[in-house]
């Protein structure tokens, strides 16, 4: 039994923007296993996200519905509700709150966005028109929340499958808006600002044209969007999707480009499902903060399959060990 | 069905040293579950870590054995071998390598330390004398590797149970030594240096006396060691263990204090197993870097139970959502 399955040796790689390191270590994926980590479905009761079960959730805060339907009843296509088990709670901050203290109330908005009234597990089970409308709801809800003076930042994300942290199977997304820019994102923005000052162009535009020119990490290109496995991938088969044209905010997208994005996302997810055997995954939508002017930022989507996972070394050092070279990951996902 | 199980509201908390934020959100733990994530043991072949199966591993690089036993055969108590599926590989760096480039070979040392010849799953199944000897092997191996001129840093860690990233059940530890100080740790060290310059004392000593005086986050105190749930816990039931007396390096510990530490660790792990139903967990041993002078650092052990897990929001923002207030976690772990 050989120690390393490929002829490639481990490699340290550093993200030139953030300074973040990863170790790409192809031998790690060959480890023997004492455990069967396959999960079983156990739900027996009604799914709170299925059409007809609207009373199982909190009242809707936004929905796309058929003209004759009533709020909080059937007849919707996408439905946004407050998370019943929230990480943050809405409410007005006290007049003297500064958010500079080391401890303050967990104010913010934690939405659940039910992607579809049908009980499907994946965006790939939906029509392109449905995914496009879902993206448009993301856009509308972000635009709405950006008017809340105390909110600074929002992340829209999906946890798909229990290995990715999902507790419910029915396809859904989450939006978490908070009164601060997360320090990690703040550092990235600051690095991007310095880069664009120094280089005279957007870091992400430069990255994108390098990836497009090189080609070995490209997963697919479609109608104004590029999906690739980043050189400094933290996770096996990690994929980033960028709009080819520089744009700071996802919320500023036009209806036409939303449907191209829907097609791109579906193609990438189909590649993951087909080539990797339907793993769980997280999807992250990184858009600019609500109030800060960040023309040097370029919005993106990250997809993080739960094939490898963080353990002691990652938690202890912040350096991820990724068992799959991004170049090989992209090749696998291209099916070539 | 109420949204929040306790009367406590979510709270943002910031680590005063590192600036890292967490959200403590007690309502999150009440979520319904579509999935049974219980794992099953599947191994049928011989365990590579059991006594008698030494040929299943790479040759030992260090072992504590009975005087008449032969290397790589039975008769050992603790055994250190090179990881067969390494994240980094030993070898001499090229003469011109700088480790400042954005990509370099994954050089370093990745050991597996087999805690005991017997097939047990936990340090709590071992005698105190055995755990003490294991800690002494940690000490000896760190001291050995600190003499390798190209290595700057090592983390010793344990992944226990599949939810914590372990692939094998037999109790074992890992040591990963690399040619750089991880940036995350570098930032912590720099913050600790500035703190001690400004305040005239070690940050961690100050933290420790505050926790000891307050008491509500203390899990236990034993013979020169204090275990508590940090104010800014990333994970539910996270526990940090510090030596009460300032010490930069774990490797400098005396034999007497090693056995007190062994007792402390076992008591903390017994509390986790008894009160939380034997979850998986990671153990991290943070000691000073090999070559950098860091008198302002205070070594510690972190124990991270896999009760809550990182998902989309954590990966997207670096802000952890922890469903259990550390004050309640400590109370639960104390059994009071």
UniProtKB/TrEMBL annotation, chains A, B:
Key words, A-Z: Carbohydrate metabolism, Metal-binding, Nucleotidyltransferase, Transferase, Zinc
Region called Disordered, residue ranges: 50-74
Binding sites annotated in the UniProt record for Zn(2+): 47, 50, 119, 170
Pfam families: GalP_UDP_transf
Gene3D superfamilies cross-referenced by the UniProt entry: HIT-like (3.30.428.10)
GO MF annotation list: UDP-glucose:hexose-1-phosphate uridylyltransferase activity; UTP:galactose-1-phosphate uridylyltransferase activity; zinc ion binding
Active site: 172 (tele-ump-histidine intermediate)
Domain Galactose-1-phosphate uridyl transferase N-terminal, first and last residues per copy: 8-182
Cofactor section: Zn(2+)
Cofactor binding description: Binds 1 zinc ion per subunit.
The EC number(s) this enzyme carries: 2.7.7.10
Example of a GO biological process term: galactose metabolic process
Protein name stated in the entry: Galactose-1-phosphate uridylyltransferase
Species annotation: Thermogutta terrifontis
């Amino acid at each position: 039994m050989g120690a390393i399955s490929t002829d490639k040796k481990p490699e340290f790689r550093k993200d030139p923007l953030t300074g973040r390191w990863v170790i790409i270590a192809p031998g790690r994926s060959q480890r023997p296993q004492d455990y069967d980590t396959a999960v079983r479905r156990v739900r027996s009761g009604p799914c709170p996200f299925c059409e007809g079960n609207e009373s199982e959730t909190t009242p809707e805060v936004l929905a796309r519905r058929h003209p004759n339907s009533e709020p909080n009843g059937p007849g919707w296509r996408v439905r946004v509700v407050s998370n019943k088990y929230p990480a943050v709670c809405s409410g007005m901050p006290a007049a003297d709150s500064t958010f500079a203290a080391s401890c303050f109330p967990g104010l913010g908005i934690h939405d659940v966005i039910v992607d579809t009234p049908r009980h499907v597990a994946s965006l790939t089970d939906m029509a392109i028109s449905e995914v496009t409308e879902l993206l448009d709801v993301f856009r509308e809800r972000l635009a709405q929340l950006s008017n809340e003076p105390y909110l600074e930042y929002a992340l829209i994300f999906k946890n798909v499958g229990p290995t990715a942290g999902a507790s419910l199977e029915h396809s859904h997304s989450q939006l978490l808006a908070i009164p601060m820019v997360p320090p990690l994102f703040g550092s990235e923005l600051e690095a991007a600002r310095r880069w664009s000052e120094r280089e005279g162009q957007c870091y992400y535009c430069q990255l994108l044209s390098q990836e497009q020119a090189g080609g070995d990490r490209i997963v697919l290109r479609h109608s104004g969007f590029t999906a690739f496995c980043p050189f400094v991938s933290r996770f096996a088969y990690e994929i980033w999707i960028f709009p080819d044209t520089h744009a700071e905010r996802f919320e500023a997208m036009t209806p036409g480009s939303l449907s191209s994005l829907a097609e791109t996302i579906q193609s990438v997810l189909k590649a993951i499902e087909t080539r990797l055997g339907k793993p769980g995954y997280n999807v992250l939508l990184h858009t600019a903060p609500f109030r800060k002017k960040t023309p040097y930022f370029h919005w993106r989507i990250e997809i993080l399959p739960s094939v490898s996972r963080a353990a002691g070394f990652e938690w202890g050092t912040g350096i991820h060990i990724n068992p799959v070279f991004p170049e090989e990951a992209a090749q696998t996902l291209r099916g070539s």
